[in-house]
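Cross-check.
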Amino acid sequence: MNYKNISARLQGFRTWIPRFFYLTDSDLKEIVNEDMDNQKYQCTYRNIHSNIFLNWLLINDKSFRSIFYFRLKEHKIAWVLSHIFLPDVRDIEITGKIAGGLCIFHGQGTVIGCHKAGKNLQVWQNVTIGRNPKTEVGGIDTPTIGNNVKIYTNSVVIGNIIIGDNVSIGAGSVVLKSIPPDCTVVGNPAYIVRRNGIRVNEKL
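Predicted model, tokenized:
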């Protein structure tokens, strides 16, 4: 048992409020379980009870803690009390309607401000997903993101655009236009380098 696992057990009292709401709110538990599924590579607790795994993540993974608090936002009292024992990470911001499976790697300087996003969104550090008022249509000026999208380090994705399912956005990319499904894009401005598994060189 490594020191992080020992620490999680000793500091269990710090997580009793968020874990209580996790255990008693079936909708919260379902979506948090989907988020935890994308975290299981990093913990020896991954094969045991989800409640213990949640405890480990809340103590040791500040990016996941921010995701959990994003899910907990409808429980205002629990949100406030939880912060007393487990402060939030100030350099991660999350807004929008985001389905289960959200995963943030490292998380420093990460801003997720989408209109909505599908399942299994993965985001790396220093990514910005946000507004471009010049693209506003029907009151929406932020991206709509599909399922199984990966957005790598230092990328910028802004405006009322659509990111299709199974898209990968390479590190340092600047995305100002919609991306079709099953594509990989890179560059500033971003362009398509792979579509349906085939190498291409296409403008967006």
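The chain has a mean pLDDT of 88. The chain has six helices and 14 strands. Passed to J.P. for a second look.
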